[in-house]
Amino acid sequence: MIYDIKIEKTAAPKAKPQDESKLGFGKIFTDHMFMMDYAEGKGWYNGRIVPFGPIPLHPASTVLHYGAEIFEGMKAYRAADGSIRMFRPMENIKRLNTSAERLCLPQLDEEGALHILNTLVELEKDWVPHSDGTSLYIRPFLFGNDPHLGVHAVKNATFVVICCPVGAYYAEGINPVKIAIEAQDVRAVRGGTGYAKCGGNYAASLRAGQKAEENGYTQVLWLDGVERKFIEEVGAMNVMFKISGKIVTPALSGSILPGITRKSCIELLRDWGYTVEERPISVDELFAAAADGSLEEAWGTGTAAVVSPIGQLFYNGTAYTLCDGKIGEVAQKLYDNLTGIQWGKLPDSHGWSYKVCE
Ligand SMILES: *Cc1c(COP(=O)(O)O)cnc(C)c1O
Question: Relative to the CA of 262, which ligand 1 atom is closest?
Answer without folding.
Answer: 8
